[in-house]
Amino acid sequence: MKNQIKNALNTIAETRDSKIRKGMNEVTKSIERVQAKFVVMAEDVSPPEILFHIPLLCEEKGIPYGYVSGKKELGNSVRINVSSSAIAIEHVGTGNEGVLDDVIKKLKEIK
What we know:
Helix content is 47%, strand content 17%. The protein is α+β, with helices and mostly antiparallel strands. It has a single domain, classed as CATH 3.30.1330.30. The protein has a four-stranded mixed sheet with strand order 1-4-2-3. Helix 2 packs parallel to helix 3. The longest helix has 14 residues. It is globular. The chain starts with a helix and ends with a helix.
């Protein structure tokens, strides 16, 4: 599942008109404004408490979310050269709607 999330992020990040918010503050704002379509968090964030509110906010607003193993991995998959604790996809870009839908369906099946 993690590889599928990373592949989807790569595809979306390559598209010019996609919009991805990076970092805790940006992601939190995106969720609260219900602009995020999908949220991805890194599992190796320390202290882990800084991410505790994200899944709760996502559940409250009905936004799907997933995890990848590392911060560096997450940063690389969205084409930034620094590690990122969380990202929010606001716009998938032209032609990428199906990519994100597949990931979201699989996550819902697992839950």
